[in-house]
Amino acid sequence: MEEALHCEGCGAEIQTEDKTKSGYVPKSALNNEHIICQRCFRLKHYNEVQDVEYTDDDYLRMINQVSNTDSLVVKVVDIFDFNGSFITGLQRLTGNNPIILIGNKVDLLPKSTNRNKLIHWMKKTASDFGLTVQDVFLVSAEKAQGFDQVEKEIEARRNDKDVYIVGCTNVGKSTFINQLIRRSSGVKDAITTSYFPGTTLGFIQIPLDRKSYMYDTPGVVNRRQLVHYVTDKDLKVITPKKEIKPKVYQLQDQQTLFFGGFGRFDFEKGMKQSFVCYFSNQLMIHRTKLEQADEFYQKHVGELLQPPSPETLEQLPELTKQTIKIPLKKTDIVIPGLGWITVPDGGVTISIHVPKGVNISLRPALI
Description:
Elements: H1 38-46, E1 53-54, H2 56-64, E2 71-78, H3 90-94, E3 99-104, H4 115-128, E4 135-139, H5 147-158, E5 162-166, H6 173-182, H7 185-192, E6 204-207, E7 213-216, E8 219-220, H8 232-238, E9 247-251, E10 255-259, E11 263-269, E12 273-279, E13 285-289, H9 290-300, H10 310-315, E14 319-326, E15 331-335, E16 339-343, E17 348-355, E18 361-364
Parallel strand pairs: 1-8, 2-3, 2-5, 3-4, 5-7
Antiparallel strand pairs: 6-7, 9-12, 10-11, 10-13, 11-17, 12-16, 14-17, 15-16, 15-18
């Protein structure tokens, strides 16, 4: 039996089958004297960090290594999929190390969003999930917004210690790290002149100074994320690319809104009022009568109710219903991975239908 090859950079076992998984190299690279995986190759030659997926068990085992270090942990989440992109149990896995929380994709929020409310909600929700964070920062890794403050904060809090960047797949963690690399000229020189000693399986070492490193940890696949059931084509429709434009619907009770075929909002009981929908500008929203909604969905999902495409429909969990009484105050109903609906006056009973496993939540309205 042939002995397994390991990447000289991050220590991952070399494989030639799947580009999205750790240790991938093209078959032609197997003849090289020094074999490094594509992820390490891109960092060494292009100063770019690439996200790869690990299984949950491997990931938890790797992140657990952080608990034995004296370091700073920077956790990146997607503002539009906070619950889905949150790694539960992180405090237990990272020990007593301080944690900074980064909310990515702030450029896609409507300008009128109350950012202080959002930061407060993120802190509170993290705490509800059992994670104590030192501070929360909002950035756009894509547009390089908010990085001056984040850089200063990381430098001030790390006290010459190492920094570990953690996050689920699809939160923009790699883009976040790449922005930090671009802003630091010293890092570029260090990367292009050395291989990285693969002391810690799966982590990529990026020198910060002569004594300390920033570690890119692989992205964990969180099964509560909607993105894992969706084709790339559908993902482009449900993921905002530009600032979200709110859509307002005047509804009587016993009316329903469909968000493509991914979600459904039933206004069960209450006075007529306007509901404000914050979703990707490309996602089609359809209104119908509640009594016809089940039949409407069965008849039109994958066609009029697009997306999902037929490929996504095959793997999408069935929609499950949750009925909620909204208190008498302005409230957001958040569907992780899709967006949110603002109930302006409250005092209504609504039902939300979302794919099984996706957990909706309520928060004080951000706008």
